[in-house]
Specification:
alpha+beta, HSP40/DNAj peptide-binding domain, two-stranded antiparallel ribbon, 3 helices, binds zinc ion, zinc, zinc ion binding, membrane
Length: 186
């Protein structure tokens, strides 16, 4: 019994220096460029972004592991640059759940695209399972079929460039019952 315990203790003692050495080695490798005084890579900040060509990272200094800030591109880079300055690029906040949307005062859903879906959980929030309501630029208002909450798309995307995106290859949205409601009932 004593022998077993002694062997275990010895093994533990032997293991610790090995583990330490491994850890220290990787730490040195990570810190090495700083010691050599490599200048931090320059990149464009959020306010300097003018076009998609500005959304390329500078890459990582030789011998280092690149970070997202070093190497991300495109809209991912835009999001990261925003986070650096505390700007929520994609507006990830939940929708207004302080009231129930009505036809006169709908809950606004910001959208940068032609189509937007919003998940309704009722009012108060989480009072029913998620029901997805769909809005388009042509038909911006939709109502939850479970609780009647009214949502309206608040389009914040680019202005129309005259290419007629609304009339893509003659596509027409399928008609719904709403299309046959007499105007006097609206
Ligand atoms: Zn609902």
């Amino acid at each position: 019994m004593f022998m077993q315990r002694a062997a275990l203790t010895a093994a533990r003692r032997a293991a610790v220096p090995v583990a330490r050495r491994t850890f220290a080695t990787s730490l040195v490798r990570c810190e090495a460029p700083k010691d050599k005084d490599v200048p931090a890579p320059q990149y464009k900040t959020l306010s300097e972004i003018r076009s998609r060509d500005d959304l390329f990272g500078p890459g990582a200094p030789v011998g280092t592991v690149p970070t997202d800030l070093n190497q991300s591109t495109g809209i991912e880079r835009l999001e990261i640059l925003g986070k650096v300055e505390g700007v929520d690029i994609f507006d990830m906040r939940p929708l207004d759940a302080s009231r129930k949307g009505t036809v006169a005062e709908p809950i606004l859903v910001r959208s940068a695209g032609e189509e937007q879906f919003a998940g309704c959980t009722g009012f108060p929030a989480d009072s029913h399972n998620v029901i997805w309501v769909g809005m388009t630029r042509d038909r911006p208002v939709d109502r939850c079929s479970e609780c009647g909450n009214v949502y309206k798309m608040d389009y914040v995307g680019p202005e129309d460039d005259g290419h007629g995106h609304h009339d893509h290859h003659g596509y027409e949205e399928p008609k719904t019952f709403a299309d046959y409601v007499k105007p006097e009932y609206h």
